[in-house]
């Protein structure tokens, strides 16, 4: 009976495959001179993007509007298996993937940031085509869509074509927004996993969202501690004490549209323990609270930040991505062009103030990966 069902399913699957034009959009984009066709999903948004010659603006409008106008999820089950395999690769079979999932689950108790972007195995396996259609109908609506176009185009023509092509979309109510607010953490939380892995140490602190006035100061703290071989964590933990093979820190984990984490992590060097790494890392964090950053060190990371921002805007794609992010996360794309002034205004006292407020035992989550014996 099972073999008969398998044969019937294979036949139906073969017939269904005839209805699918594999990678048809990719071929159209490539033939028209387009490059970089891709999509990404993060904790904050899903982005679809590619670059076209400026004289293909109307084709872009046609393709992108059709993509979301009335899609048919024909290859749902194949893609479901692809996602399950991706989760196995990046999380279930990855020590650091397992730790990240457990770490976020400990650091967040209410906010959706506690859940992995890809989902859990049982959710992916239990997903139906109807579930996907309902999600699409709820969230892929005009009021939840933001478009950024950068290039040699006339704004009036962009608006005219957008009205023609995207004007076909029916107005829909704005989808449900994230309203959950993560309560203030009141004590240190810890996660320890024993896995077949090198030992890792992680330490995270709750930090404000992207649109908070202090967000840029957290970026500076991340640069002071871990931007390059002149950074404090590298010089102390890797170069001088040789406790770690690498040590990094950054803000905006796992996303930054909402209040998030500033995360520090280090790969322990052979012959040393995660506790030694944790103690040394904490000492560098505490220095930010007790010793003002020198003007020279602050100017160095501010110069790096300015250069990094300007480099990111040097391409049309980089500019489009940045405009999109600022519009969605701050409410106005013009805020992008105020960022240089925000960087310039940071003083050593700001670093010390934010460090003192943030880096407390009550606000701390610790993660340890310990080698599993055998």
From TrEMBL:
Stored InterPro entries: Metalloenz_LuxS/M16, MPP/UQCRC_Complex, Pept_M16_N, Peptidase_M16_C
GO MF, one annotated term: metal ion binding
Domain Peptidase M16 N-terminal: 20-118
Domain Peptidase M16 C-terminal, residue spans: 127-304
Annotated PANTHER family: METALLOPROTEASE, MITOCHONDRIAL-PROCESSING PEPTIDASE SUBUNIT ALPHA
Family according to the record: Belongs to the peptidase M16 family.
Annotated protein name in UniProt: Insulinase family protein
